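Hi all, long-time lurker, first post. I run a small reading group and we've been trying to get comfortable going from sequence to structure in the token notation. Rather than ask abstract questions, I figured I'd post a concrete chain and ask someone more experienced to write out its structure so we can walk through it together at our next meeting. Sequence below, copied exactly:
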Amino acid sequence: MPKLKSKSGAKKRFTLTAKGKVRAKQANTAHRLVSKAKSAKLRNRGTTILTDSDAYTIKRYWLH
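-- Answer (accepted) --
Happy to help. Here is the structure in token form:
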């Protein structure tokens, strides 16, 4: 059976930390920012660490 390809979208959107956790861009920062509170916009800057269940799925994309 041939090797499976990695998901190219996952390669572009996620990175791994030194301890193997999955880092992703923070959600809710793309549009409709006028109607969001300033505190929410500040809180959603930068990146976040995915939960274990989501990280498991993303890591499987890379292992193929």
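A couple of things your group might point at:
The first helix runs from residue 8 to 13.
The first strand starts at residue 14 and ends at 16.
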